[in-house]
Amino acid sequence: MNHKKCRFCQSSLEHTFLDLGVSPLANSFVNAEGLNKMEPFYPLHTFVCKSCLLVQLSEFESPQNIFNDYLYFSSYSSTWLLHAEAYVEMATKRFHLTESSQVIEIASNDGYLLQYFQKKNIPSLGIEPAKNVAEAALRKGVNTISEFFGNKLAKELSSENMQADLIVANNVLAHVPNLHDFVAGLKTLLKADGVITIEFPHLLQLITHKQFDTIYHEHFSYFSLVSVKRILAHYKLQIVDVEELSTHGGSLRLFIKHEHKDLRINTRVQDLIQKESEQGLDQLNSYLQFAKQIEALKVDTLKFLIQAKEENKQIVGYGAPAKGNTLLNFYGIGKEFLPYTVDASPHKQGLYLPGTRIPIQNPEMLKQTKPDYLLILPWNLREEIVEQCSFIREWGGKFLVIIPKVEVIE
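Request: output the structure for the sequence above.
Response:
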């Protein structure tokens, strides 16, 4: 019997959302020397809390170990940079930010977003726990401190008169094992009339589009609007607006302020809560159906790969994202199906995928081996990758995606 407790409401976790067996840490890439060493594998078992319906993983590895030397640099995706630049334009106008404002981004990565605030001379501070990534931001001239964010750091910054007019927290909430400490820190760091924007992949999209591969050990929690609203309300923080975004396969951007009786709340908030309810996200039973759909998808994918193999077709991968490692390990896809994958990031080239040990090559390798199919592992960037690699059509190559279904793109 499972006796783990919900990280928000402390109810016991008894109901499985999806059990993906055991898997290595999704970003623990292997170097050549590591090929003869054993890798740690951890259970990748998500539960849904029967009380607050928060979908979550148990914590098997500390954030300190996961993010100590991190290989995800935001600036290698042109799509993501455009998203960041557009956000800065929107935020500057909407919140009337000036040279006397203070912007603080939590999990600021390599300065991919704050660089655009700096160009506008709006004071900004990044908080980034991964030291190697924070150093990349500092080299760009983006003011960054390399620490984990929580209420303790928020109090220290507040005591130095560093409260924020705008707090940006993109794709970090899922990475936080201690939600109470993190949200309390947001409350502490926010000026009385300030605003927080949080972006995170939307659980509704994960379920609807079978995006099970976004489950990995770095993501401790998976949020619906209702579950986040409950957590924020506990700290007297109010969602005043919400936008649905296309990033990461479908994300939410929340606009949050200190609770106040005169707050104006956009009708989009209630509309989206209603939409989640209509899709069953307020019913435990809806969560318990998910695993069967993923089992069927796994069978469909393996059938396609086996048939391609029997026809002597070569399939290689594009990308080395964390989500790809979840998928390949759960499906049991190794070098017999995928002899290599390519990635534009030089930080990943020459390494091997965790668990499967599939080598990561430079994209130029595609022109040498002329594969029949290019399997797009970061499916959220499919348009960008199809455009970048359109040259594979010269030899009759086709693109392949396997989330939310097996699909060949001519």
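The longest helix spans residues 290-310.
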